[in-house]
Automatic annotation (TrEMBL), chain A:
ABC transmembrane type-1 domain: residues covered: 108-320
Transmembrane intervals: 12-32, 110-135, 155-177, 197-218, 260-281, 301-323
Any GO CC annotation of this UniProt entry: plasma membrane
Similarity annotation: Belongs to the binding-protein-dependent transport system permease family.
PROSITE patterns found in the cross-reference section: ABC_TM1 (PS50928)
Name this polypeptide is given: ABC transporter permease
UniProtKB/TrEMBL annotation, chain B:
Domain of life according to the entry: Bacteria
Cellular localization per UniProt: Cell membrane
Alphabetical list of PROSITE patterns matching this protein: ABC_TM1
GO biological processes: transmembrane transport
Family designation: Belongs to the binding-protein-dependent transport system permease family.
Residues passing through the membrane, by range: 12-34, 78-102, 109-133, 139-158, 204-225, 245-274
Coiled coil region boundaries: none
Keyword Repressor: no
Listed name of the protein: Peptide ABC transporter
């Protein structure tokens, strides 16, 4: 037990370091760049309307105060952290005066739901089929499946999402291709609303699953086909242990360990896939919010989305890491 | 070297297919050096022409000959991928070898930094860079930024090999003979990790070109520079599929799938080659 606590402590330290570095990086990128956010907003405003010089000067002063860009950089860095810890990154310009963090909070459940369900489906299906394919290398169906997985796996998220969009939006319009739920459904705790959400999430989730599962399938197949040749598996077979016990307890359990590590490493990549999927299917999550914020030059919102997504991804990796010792006794003993 | 290549092509059908696909794409991209038109110009051909004898891949709604446009786009994207892969390989070799061979606190510090880089999601960071740099972000800047994030997985892989090499007889001989650490790493250990470097090179190219496509499709790169991603961006923004200019989408998608599949097959077949167990199984021994 003590070993496990040590492990958790070490990982927690790492989690904090990751969050600190990631958020510091977002601060440095945005504040050390030669582009001034105040001038950017002013450029946008004055391009669309005729403002008097006095009004521009007043707007500039107000914006400088709001973003705090007039102060020395260290002071700004300090302020940034204190405001972040209070969960306040200023109002969003996109939906003024809603605080940027509120918008992020509203978008978060959508992304989280999509990401968690599709990652779990992908991970379970991919690993299960991959293990079967590795354990029964002569099965024709699984061999064909491996070829399909190999063909789809390297294609970028965008292309797969777009192909699905063309197929289901253009040729067989049977599934909704845009939005998080139907326009005529009132949001609330009702079966109708839940069904609508489910129906709208099928295509985005499907595109994430299609791209993701091939990697797990191929990885698991390779791992299992190596473990199967290990001495202890041969020994168990000779000793007459049941085949199902060998597959579950001896082979899959040992091959699972590197896959859990890989899951922790894949989460960041899946997140960028979610961003693009949300954009293609117009899904109301963090990705769409980030893209809108960039296109509108909404400084606070961009900062809010990036800090929250860095924290969330690091947190997810931390949680997956905690599962690791439960599968691998060596990590517990370390 | 050539005998390895010959064996791979003979015994490994995936390698052969991958090599063929990549060769086709590279040849196609290389044609852009003989391009009769400047791919950055618009409205130089009749818009929206379907594929014909004059325009092999048709023309798009921006009045560009798609054949030369795509050729230039694939050249730029491949060069981009190679730049990122070379730069990040240099970092991962340096970190991996040093941390595996020197060990101790150097190893701990480097691996701590490594783990931080693994956990930071790169996509928000890239979007931030675009957000502040806007159109000052050319593809070399983007390549530099991506190279800074593309090394940690492979550094860990190289480190695990270097850890094993450290206690081998020849390392001790080299050290007793008075070789400096730098020389031991570059002359004795580097050749052993080269296979990993090659196979991760392909994977890294896949990763960086994929990210570039993602960014460009959202409009977050310099859109006047023809790349795989910007071709898709313009096709999208002119609603090519809806107005019936299907060749503007279909042909790039086919070429993209060929590129990605080819690089992927090369990477996994090289991986298999590195692992002698699976190689023996394939050769039927």
């Amino acid at each position: 037990m003590q070993g496990y606590l040590w492990f958790v402590g070490k990982r927690l330290l790492q989690l904090l370091a990751v969050i600190f570095c990631g958020i510091s990086a977002t601060f440095l990128v945005t504040h050390l760049s030669p582009v001034d956010p105040v001038e950017q907003v002013l450029g946008r405003l004055s391009a669309r309307s005729n403002l008097s010089p006095e009004a521009i000067a007043a707007t500039r002063a107000a914006l400088t105060e709001m973003y705090g860009t007039g102060q020395p950089i260290l002071q700004q860095y300090f302020n940034f952290w204190t405001r972040l810890l209070r969960g306040d990154l200023g109002p969003s310009l996109l939906a003024f005066p809603t605080p940027a963090m509120d918008l992020v909070g509203r978008a978060m459940p959508w992304t989280l739901g999509l990401l968690v369900t599709s990652t779990m489906i992908t991970f379970i299906i991919g690993n299960l089929l991959g293990a079967l394919a590795g354990y029964n290398p002569d099965n024709r169906f699984l061999k064909a499946f491996g070829l399909v997985a190999m063909g789809i796996q390297p294609i970028p998220y965008y292309v797969v999402a777009f192909i699905l969009l063309i197929i289901f939006g253009y040729f067989f319009p049977i599934l909704p291709v845009s939005g998080g739920f139907a326009m005529d459904v009132r949001p609330g705790l009702s079966w109708q609303f839940a069904g609508s959400i489910l129906q709208h999430s099928i295509l985005p989730a499907l595109s994430l699953v299609l791209v993701g599962f091939g990697g797990w399938f191929l990885g698991m197949r390779a791992l299992v086909s190596n473990v199967v040749n290990d001495d202890y598996v041969t020994y168990a077979e000779l000793a007459g242990v049941k085949r199902s016990t060998i597959a579950g307890g001896y082979v899959i359990r040992n091959a699972m360990v590197p896959q859990i590590t890989a899951l922790a490493m894949a989460i960041g990549g899946v997140f960028s896939g979610t961003v693009i999927t949300e954009q293609v299917f117009n899904y109301p999550g963090l990705g769409s919010l980030l893209i809108d914020a960039v296109n509108w030059g909404d400084y606070s919102l961009v900062l809010a989305v990036s800090t929250v997504s860095i924290t969330a991804v690091a947190g997810a990796i931390f949680i997956v890491d905690l599962l690791h010792p439960l599968l691998d006794p060596r990590v517990r003993a370390e | 070297m050539f005998s390895i290549l010959r064996d791979l092509i003979r015994y490994n059908i995936e390698f052969a297919i991958g090599l063929a696909l990549v060769a086709i794409v590279v040849l196609f991209a290389a044609l852009s050096f003989f391009s009769p038109v400047d791919p950055t110009l618009i409205y130089v051909a009749i818009p929206d022409q379907p594929p014909s004898a004059q325009y092999w891949f048709g023309t798009n709604s921006r009045g560009q000959d798609l054949f030369w446009q795509l050729s230039a786009a694939f050249r730029n994207s491949l060069i981009f991928g190679i730049t990122v892969a070379v730069l990040s390989r240099i970092i991962s070799i340096a970190v991996g070898l040093a941390s595996g061979y020197i060990g101790g606190w150097v190893d701990r510090v480097l691996m701590f930094v490594n783990d931080i880089f693994v956990a930071i999601p790169i996509f928000p960071i890239l979007v931030l860079f675009y957000f502040v740099l806007r159109n000052n972000m050319d593809s070399f800047t983007l390549a530099l930024i991506m190279a800074c994030f593309g090394w940690p997985f492979d550094a860990r892989l190289i480190r695990s090999v270097a850890l094993g090499l450290k206690h081998r007889e020849f390392t001790r001989h080299a050290v007793f003979a008075g070789m400096s650490t730098r020389k031991v790493l570059l002359e004795e250990h580097l050749p052993y990790v080269m296979p990993i470097v090659f196979s991760t090179f392909m994977n890294n190219m896949l990763w960086s070109i994929g990210l570039e496509v993602t960014l460009a499709v959202l409009g977050f790169t310099n859109l006047n520079n023809p790349t795989i991603g910007t071709v898709l961006y313009w096709a999208n923004s002119h609603s090519a599929m809806v107005v019936g200019v299907w060749w503007w989408i279909l042909i790039p998608v086919i070429l993209i799938v060929m590129t990605f599949l080819g690089l992927f097959l090369l990477a996994i077949s090289m991986n298999e080659y590195i692992d002698p167990r699976s190689r023996l199984r394939r050769m039927g021994a």
